[in-house]
Specification:
Layout lengths: L2 H12 L8 E4 L9 H14 L6 H6 L5 H13 L5 H17 L9 H10 L3 E5 L5 H10 L8 E2 L12 H10 L6 E5 L2 H10 L2 E5 L6 H6 L4 E3 L2 H15 L5
Parallel strand pairs: 1-2, 1-4, 2-3, 4-5, 5-6
Helix pairs in contact: 2-5, 4-5, 6-11
Bound molecules: magnesium ion.
């Protein structure tokens, strides 16, 4: 898929004549942080301790759902147990502890370059994550100082996790723009689905084991094989997106 084809398809799909991207809605895990390896390890440990069989792959695929949603579903499907919200929150606390015990997750290579390239192009940057993980949320301001300010949506701000479009709709609202003025930057199929359902031009970046075709299948307008490739393509992509028709 070339940017030109992706733009033509997006215009056809939305019935719009032009695109005017002013805002980037940026996912956290797997985009700003190389954290999914540790998240999937912590999830498997939590499930195994509770006698629920699972693989790490399924947690790569459920990335974007809230922790409570993941726990309720896994306990129902894997153990036939109905878990209350309070029980799920307590279990999510245990998962967070396991995640913390694995040590910090590094900032994604080239993520800072990506954020700088967006700024240079005059694009507003908004963080959109379903995470309520204090270890990650507290680090954002240390690792990306003076960057997001109030421009952030976390699991505390929404009722529904991805693939529901709510997190990205709330992100657009925080920036005071229509979803169609937003570029979503995502690594996970459910996150891509959420961006697509919100009506945003949605970029997938494969930063983990999930194949590019899975992100296209989820509704990505364009998929890049890694962060470095996306950063390299970003200035031209933004120009193409915001080009006026001849
Ligand atoms: Mg992610």
């Amino acid at each position: 898929m070339t940017p030109q084809n992706a733009i033509a398809e997006y215009l056809k799909f939305t019935g719009k004549k032009t695109i005017n991207i002013t805002t980037a809605l940026i996912d956290c895990d797997g985009i700003l942080y190389d954290s999914m390896k540790n998240h999937t390890r912590a999830w498997v440990k939590l499930m195994q301790k509770n006698g629920i069989r699972c693989t790490r792959d399924e947690f790569y695929l459920s990335e974007g759902m809230t922790g409570v949603e993941i726990i309720k579903r896994k306990f129902r499907e894997g153990a036939g147990k109905q878990v209350t919200d309070d029980e799920a929150l307590a279990l999510y606390g245990v998962k967070n502890r396991y995640f913390q015990e694995l040590g910090g997750s590094p900032v994604m290579p080239h993520a800072t370059k990506m954020l700088n390239a967006l700024k240079q192009a005059g694009i507003e940057r908004v963080l959109v994550t379903g995470s309520m993980q204090p270890t990650i949320l507290e680090r954002i301001d240390q690792d990306f100082p003076n960057l997001f300010g109030d421009n952030r949506v976390t699991g505390h701000d929404t009722r529904h996790g991805k693939p529901n479009p709510e997190p990205y709709l709330v992100g657009a609202r925080k920036a005071g723009v229509e979803p169609s003025a937003c570029l979503v930057i995502e690594n996970a199929p459910l996150g891509v689905q959420a961006g697509h359902a919100a009506g945003c031009f949605t970029i997938g970046i494969t930063t983990g084991p999930i194949a590019e075709r899975e992100l296209y299948r989820a509704g990505a307008n364009l998929v890049y094989p890694n962060m470095e490739a996306f950063v390299a393509a970003l200035p031209e992509l933004l120009q193409a997106l915001n080009a006026k028709p001849e």
